[in-house]
Amino acid sequence: MPRTNNRAPRRAAKPSAGNAQLPAIPATTLPAVSQPSADAPRLMREIRQFLDYARVEKGLAANSIESYRRDLNEFAAYLRGHGKTLGDADRELIRGFLTSLYHRGLGARSVARHLVSLRNLFRFLREEQAIQFDPTAEIQLPHIGTDLPHFLSIEEVDKLLAAPDLSTPSGLRDKAMLELLYATGMRVSELVQARSSDLDANLGIIRCIGKGNKERLIPVGKSALQAVEAFLRGGRGHFSKDRASPYLFLNPRGNALTRVGFWKILRRYGQQVGVTLGLTPHAMRHSFATHLLERGADLRSVQMMLGHSSISTTQIYTHVLNERLKQIYHAHHPRA
To answer: Using an 8 Å Cβ cutoff, are 210 and 263 in contact?
Structure first.
């Protein structure tokens, strides 16, 4: 991305030797609090330019941009609170910021995300020749254990899908959304942004725009197609109120349903049928993938349907299956 102004490169802070280990930093090594920096406007301009680059040139999704924005704004607030600028940022200052996140109670995964955000910012600034040294280069990511995704049993999914009252427009809409979510493994953001034109009932597929504006086609089963068709015939007009809207699922005001709105719907049905432990929209996505693999689907096909850019992301579900096999073995083998 072209720079809007020319500046002399900032002096690079000299890194100390050795790799950083988080979070083993004594509190006494944190920079002393001083007056907010006068460089704050320039700092925020650097962050805005990076976010523009990430959105326009890298094509990152809105959720990713917002995550970067939150993390970098926290870092900017830390710098201001300690009277520092980006030019002052060295390895110890970055470690101090990450340690402050631990002190706030954030876990290793959240701290690692902040560090990744900082790495991308400083890499961008180096490419733009705004800095000479990347202070995050020698800092190791915190160790993050493998968290097995939570998924529902087939019986729990059946209870949820049977919960909506099909005699009401809301029930028809909710039934269609739940069926489509479980049938496709879509992300909740993809579900609520689905358009009526994205679904081809004759071919039994739905067009989905995922992260990074990547398009994929996902097969849709008969149960989900029937639920969506019933909603289109007997429920959608109640929400659209004869106003044109491209979105498939609408709220009572005739606008696209939001992620939070769907989460509230899902939670209500979970409470209604007694399925509350670990129930989230993403748990439905995990259930989709796990149930497919349990019934013999190959990993590459599941990767394509989920929209994972790397199969290593999809391989987490093989760990789920391994744990399930161990449980079955210990429960049923006579000498387990």
So the answer is: no
Tell me phi and psi for residue 243, to 5 degrees.
-100, 140
Residues contacting 209, CB < 8 A, separation 6+: 190, 193, 215
On the question of pLDDT at 32 being above 50, the answer is no
- Find the CATH number of the domain harbouring 263: 1.10.443.10
Q: Is residue 7 situated within a structural domain?
A: no
- The answer to whether residues 129 and 120 touch, using CB atoms and an 8 Å cutoff, is no
- 88, 12 in Cβ contact below 8 A? no
Cα distances from 306 to residues 198, 256, 288, 301, in angstroms, run 17, 22, 9, 9
How far apart (Å, rounded) are the C-alpha atoms in residues 133 and 125? 9
Per DSSP, 206 falls in state E
Mark 235-273 as b/e (b = at least 16 C-beta within 10 Å): bbebbeeeeebebbbbeeeeebbeeebbeebbeebbeee
Distance, CA of 109 to CA of 146 (rounded, Å): 10
To the question of pTM greater than 0.90 for the whole model, the response is no
The CATH number assigned to the domain holding 70 equals: 1.10.150.130
Model confidence pLDDT, tens digit, residues 100-145: 998 898 888 888 899 999 999 999 988 888 888 888 988 887 766 6
Structure tokens at 35: 């007056």
Query: Which residues are identified as catalytic?
Result: 187, 211, 282, 285, 308, 317
CB 223 within 8 A of CB 183: yes
Domain of 89 in residue numbering reads as 27-127
Please list the residues that pair with 216 across neighbouring strands.
Answer: 208
Considering the domain boundaries, does residue 91 fall inside one? yes
Edge-to-edge strands of the sheet including 215-219?
199-200, 205-209, 215-219
98 and 216 housed in the same domain:
no
Q: Are residues 253 and 179 in the same domain?
A: yes
Identify which of 103, 91, 79, 71 has the alpha carbon closest to the alpha carbon of residue 20. 91
* 136 within domain boundaries: no
Question: Does residue 212 share a domain with residue 106?
Answer: no
